Amino acid sequence: MNTGSSSMQDFTGNLRTNSQLANRSRFLNTLQNIVRTLSRRATIVTGVPAGAVAALLLYVWTATPQYAATATVFIDLPKAEKTNFSASPPASPQITDADMVVESQAKLIRSSVVLTDVVDRLGLAYDSEFAPPLGTVDRLKKRFSLRASAADGNGIDFVTSRVLEHLRNRVSVSRDEKTVVINIEATSAQAIKAAAIANATAASYLKRPEFGGAHLVTSATPPVEPLPVVGWPMFGLVLAAGAAFGGFLAVAMEGHDRRIKTLTQLNEISGLPALAAIPQVGTRERARRAKPNREELRRYDPTRKTLLPPSLQPPLMRYAFDDPTSTFADGIRAVRLAIQRASSGARSEIVMVTSASDSEGKSTLSTNLARSFAMAGVNTVLVDCDLRNPEVTGSLCPRVDRGLTEAAFHSESIERFILDEEVSGLSVLPAPPSPNFNIRTELAFTPQFSSILARLRDRFEVIVLDAPPLIPLTDSRALADHADSIILTAAWNETRQDVLMEGLHLLAPNLHRVLGCVLSRVDMERLRYYDRAYGQAYREPYRPSL
User: Fold this and answer.
1) Residue-number span of the structural domain to which 506 is assigned
2) Which is nearest to 255 in space by CA: 41, 525, 12?
3) Which of 141, 156, 311, 339 is most buried, judging by how many CB atoms fall within 10 Å of its CB?
4) Same domain flag for 196 and 121
5) Is the separation of the CB atoms in 407 and 452 below 8 Å?
6) Which residues contact 503 (CB under 8 A, 6 or more apart)?
């Protein structure tokens, strides 16, 4: 019996320990995700507080300096009240008659009677600091104020009341703790004017015996230094508030961001294998590789209707060939391996490369993929099937005037329309723009196109089709019927999840032919904030230039 009870206690203890470990693991994962989110949105997290501090500095720099001058008066209390005031303070705080007298006098100093006299004495009604030009709101106030004055007979006109409002905001009255000494502080953009306002306010108050007895202790003198616009604590408060808002904004933006950023995310959204991540080559790296060989450029004849020399082709279109040890080339090889495994020894394979929308790196992928097959000794042809926007043709052979459309409607041998590259062994069937718009829009739906593919199957082992994007055009949906394997590209941090799903929906009749998805133009430097599997050594060649 004791053994069973002990076993139950051990089991309960193990459950409690496992639950604590699970809770701790969830907490650490949540904390790690928050840190990664803030790291990914570092521009916002740092930019918002920096902008707030910059705005505060701009305000400090442009704000008009203000000077403060103080006059001090002493309130004469009746004898009984003096006795009460000078007595020992009670054990618990309470308001005495003397306190009420002093507080009342402080309020009287800022009354309209006293301040109106100050306005008249110093001519503040004609001072632009206290009587600035009327704005739209002021004009509306004036109109309603005049109607109210006519109704109630108020003797203070709108202009005077407006000056009094500005003056009352510049005059403050404070009491020195539990004493009968009152400080009258006035602020102004001019030191002399601040002292004059404080002294005039004190004089206007003292000359009115109906307010009670009081006398001047010290007159205000023009201050030497202006008041600080804001204190250092305000900078700290603005910085903290900006950091908090920046963090909140970063988390909110991350939560509403529907762009694809990792292979795992691509796999979960599409339900298809994520084959590879193709790095984005930095601007500086592309510029370095784009410098043409001067001797090659001198020998090149621009009238020749052939493939461009390798040194004159866009670097991205041959990056895997020029740098076979790079992560870029390794990603291309990963796609090639998936196609080779799926073909399972077939005599020929038609591979269609497409994307849901435009500008997602499909032409770069298809060209490098075809070259990768050719480098491996596979007889490969790259066919430009994007007749509306033939990017492959424009990049590799912009001068040709015959290609896919001519081969489809002429009885000549198809070899007469294919261009061969000796260096890589790649063959290219270009698609120069046809003057017949009907051919450009309808070729993919004709029997002639099926005949072209049949002839290519007899001649090549791998046919790579650079197809148009799925959503804006219908051509790729027709091309998918002829493909053995389909590769769908998605641009890193650009392609939205709903766009990718719409592209897959359009491929629904041929979804069984979709081999997988490729994440293109990946920023390897930023990818580490989403996927820790990529190390520093693999990011260095693809660091984007500023």
Assistant:
1) 283-542
2) 41
3) 339
4) yes
5) yes
6) 354, 355, 356, 357, 469, 470, 471, 488
Considering the domain architecture, whether residues 182 and 318 belong to the same structural domain is answered as no
Q: Which of 199, 218, 237 is the last residue of a domain?
A: 218
- Domain end marker among 182, 199, 218: 218
Residues 170 and 57: their CA atoms lie apart, in Å, by 24
One domain, residues 288 and 205 = no
394/479 same-domain check: yes
Amino acid type, 476: S
Q: What is the pLDDT of residues 353-380, one digit of tens each?
A: 999 999 899 999 999 999 999 999 999 9
Q: How far, in Å, CA of 386 to CA of 440, rounded?
A: 9
pLDDT digits (tens, 9 = 90+) for 309-334: 888 888 899 999 999 999 999 999 99
d(CA 77, CA 103): 12
Quick one: 371 and 458 in the same domain?
Answer: yes
Q: Kindly state whether residue 492 falls inside one of the protein's structural domains.
A: yes
Per-residue pLDDT tens digits for 273-283: 999 999 998 87
Tell how strand 181-188 and strand 214-218 pair up.
Answer: unpaired
Residue 21: which residues within 8 A CB-CB, separation 6 or more?
A: none
The answer to whether 34 and 254 are in contact (CB under 8 A) is: no
Residue with token string 């053994």:
3
Once rounded to an integer, what is the mean pLDDT over residues 101-105?
A: 83
Task: For residue 446, give the amino acid letter.
Answer: T
At 480, give phi and psi (nearest 5°): -65, -25
Is 526 among the domain residues? Answer: yes
> In total, how many domains does the chain have?
2
How far is residue 135 CA from its own chain's centroid? 37
Q: What pLDDT digit, counting tens, does each position of 423-452 carry?
A: 999 999 999 988 777 888 889 999 999 999
More confident position, 195 or 16: 195
Residue 54 predicted with pLDDT over 60: yes
- Long-range Cβ contacts of 496-500 (<8 Å, 24+ apart): 496/258, 496/259, 496/260, 497/258, 497/259, 497/260, 497/269, 498/258, 499/356, 499/357, 499/471, 500/260, 500/266, 500/269, 500/270, 500/356
3-state secondary structure 5-68: HHHHHHHHHHHHHHHHHHHHHHHHHHHHHHHHHHHHCHHHHHHHHHHHHHHHHHHHHHCCCCEE
pTM: 0.67
The DSSP 8-state label assigned to residue 189 in this structure reads: S
E strand map for 37-152: 67-75
How many whole angstroms separate alpha carbon 202 and alpha carbon 386? Answer: 87
